[in-house]
Amino acid sequence: MDTTQLLKGVLDVAVLAVVAEEDGYGYDVLRRLRAGGLEQVGDASVYGTLRRLYSSGALTSYVVPSDEGPHRKYYGINAQGRAMLAAQRKDWFEFAGTMSRLLETETAR
Amino acid sequence: MSSTHAGHGVISDAHTYAAEVRRHLLGLTPEQVDDLTDGLEADLGEALADTPGTDDLVSRFGEPRAYAAELRAAAGLPDGGVAPARRKSFWRWLTLPIRSAYEASAEGIDVLRSQTWWPPVGELLTSLQPVAWVLRGWVAYQLVFAVVVGAMFGLRMSWAPFGNPLLFLFMLAVILLSVQWGRGLWIPTGRLRRLPRIMTVATLVVALPIVASLSTRDVEYRYETVVEYADGPGVADGVVVGGMAVSNLYVYDAEGNPLDDVQIYDDRGRPVQTMVDNGFGVWDLYGVDEPWRFASVEDEDGRTRWNVYPQRGAPVNDFGDETDAEGHPTLVPGAMLRIPPRPFAKAPALASAVSGEASTPGADPTAGETPDPATSPSGQATTPSPDPDTSPAVDGAPAGQEPVAP
Fold first, then answer.
1. A44/B67 CB distance under 8 A
2. Backbone CA torsion sign across B301, B306, B310, B312
3. pLDDT computed for residue A6 by the predictor
4. How far is A76 from chain B (nearest CA, A)?
5. Which listed CATH number (1.10.274.10, 3.20.20.140, 1.10.3720.10, 1.10.10.10) goes with A3-108?
6. Mutate which of A5, A71, A74, A80 to disrupt the B interface (most B C-beta within 10 Å)?
7. Chain A partners of B47 at a C-beta cutoff of 8 Å?
8. What is the overall mean pLDDT for chain B?
9. What value of ipTM does the predicted structure carry?
10. 20 to 30 Å CA-CA from B304: which of A64, B42, B103, B404?
């Protein structure tokens, strides 16, 4: 199965979970996602997702200047983002449970 | 880990790559592009530094065009085509100055953002946004007022139409609309999405002349008010010598001795007053450091009289914070009303007084055309009373050499 297709649906909640852990800039979030096991995730997908979550009001953003080189744009979670994360986390567990039950039943037959 | 040199090369490459990505985001507004790619260089540079051995960004991140497409799709922005850009070319040409200004200002903001002091300042400015929304609404109201209401009904512009409930409600409604726009509510979608922000900038530009005209009008108004006052008793009354308002009058008898408590009337029997403000004013006296305040005299009928000269007063510091029934400051304990320094201890005597005998009407400076010229060779001065029906409540003081009256 092409996991990149699966990933599309859950990237939001994955990014929210990572940012909720600790504020991070684009590449930092990407690195933590990959370290968490989502090896397939694309750079631009993560950055785009961060921007979209920010635009929708789930994340805050601030710029941290760098001593040398370009500045970094950090993202942090806010109350709306936490609420979104909680709801999506619940959805995910329900969905995963449903899928697990379904698939187990199918294999049991 | 890369050396400084290698690191620099990576960043420079990341710049080129990021620029390519931006180029492929052309269908979006500069704002969206900025939003999508802010900090991209840092992310690219660090990602590249994390994978040693790859100097070619295209092999690491793929074609910039694909990268841009992925970025845009993940951000939930619509796919930009080439065709719409061509179709809009005239529009783009028309709006080029606006867009250039916008991009330049965005660049300027980027420079600001990279300063260490920016975060608190930026937060402060962001928290002031609602003020801009209210101001925007107010300016919009003023514009509508000036163009429609003012022109149709000939009403004057004002800071707020307090006297007109309907207009006031209208103003509140416009401000509310502006604030709701600012909050992202009631906002037109699609093409007009950026209208509120443009309006904010326009507001700041338009607000200046409006505020300027309103405040100069206020100044003019105040000026008119002052003129009204000046047309009143301030200039037309009082005693003026050589263009200067006179604070006090000093009277000398024929021998040149100073007289105290002299009442002065004009030819119609009106009291001649130097104080036209009931003694509330403070006077700078010639040759006296401290400003003085003067007090009135009461006659036997209990009336306040301001035409008894020389008027007595005291330096302002002798008056305390307490006031009497009429609101005049009262003297501090121990202080006394007194006559300010006279211009001369003694004036030149008149020829008739020196020669000793006959007093002629023409020689008496204080009596004028009154029937009883009042000097006597003995040095006594009688009260000059030019008005027969005014009782001499204030006695003519014996004109001694001492200026201080009992």
1. yes
2. positive
3. 81
4. 14
5. 1.10.10.10
6. A71
7. 27, 30, 43
8. 73
9. 0.80
10. B404
- Higher pLDDT: A70 or B176? It is B176
pLDDT at B126 over 50: yes
A38 touches chain B (CB under 8 A): no
Q: How far is A100 from chain B (nearest CA, A)?
A: 28
Pair B283, B300: CB distance under 8 Å: no
The model's pTM = 0.37
CB-based contact B147:B141 (threshold 8 Å): no
Q: Scanning the structure block, which residue is given the tokens 């567990």?
A: A93
Cβ neighbours for A16, distance < 8 A, ≥ 6 positions apart: A53, A58, A77, A81, A84, A85, A88
Q: Is omega for the bond preceding B333 within 30 degrees of 0, making it cis?
A: no
Measured between CA atoms, the residue of chain B closest to residue A29 is B43
- Let me know: does A73 contact A26? Beta carbons within 8 Å: yes
Ranges of chain A whose pLDDT falls below 70: 1, 106-109
Contact A64, B116 (CB under 8 A): no
Give buried/exposed letters for A98-108 (b at 16+ CB in 10 A, else e): eeeeeeeeeee
Contact B39 A42 (CB under 8 A): no
Query: What is the domain partition of chain A in residue ranges?
Result: 3-108
The answer to whether B118 contacts chain A (CB < 8 Å) is: yes
Cβ of residue B42 closer than 8 Å to a chain A Cβ? yes
For testing contact with chain B, the best of A25, A38, A51 (most B CBs within 10 A): A51
CB atoms within 10 A of CB B77: 21
H helices of B281-355, in order, are 351-355
Q: Is A46 on the interface with B (CB under 8 A)?
A: yes
Tokens of B83: 């065709």
> Which residue's entry shows tokens 């027969």?
B388
Sequence-distant (6+) residues with CB within 8 A of B271 are: B263, B264, B265, B305, B306, B307
Q: Give A-chain residues touching B11 at CB under 8 angstroms.
A: 69-70
* Interchain pair B47, A52: CB under 8 A: no
On whether the CB atoms of residues A53 and A59 are closer than 8 A, the answer is yes
In this structure, are residues B334 and B320 in contact, taking their beta carbons and an 8 Å threshold? no
Nearest alpha carbon to residue B328 among B397, B282, B284, B270: B282
B75 touches chain A (CB under 8 A): yes
- Higher-confidence residue: B245 or B364? B245
Residues B262-277 as b/e (b if ≥16 CB within 10 A, e otherwise) read bbbbeeeeeeebbbbe
Tokens representing B151? 């022109």
Cβ separation of B71 and A47 shorter than 8 Å? yes
Residue with tokens 């609309």, as numbered in its chain: B177
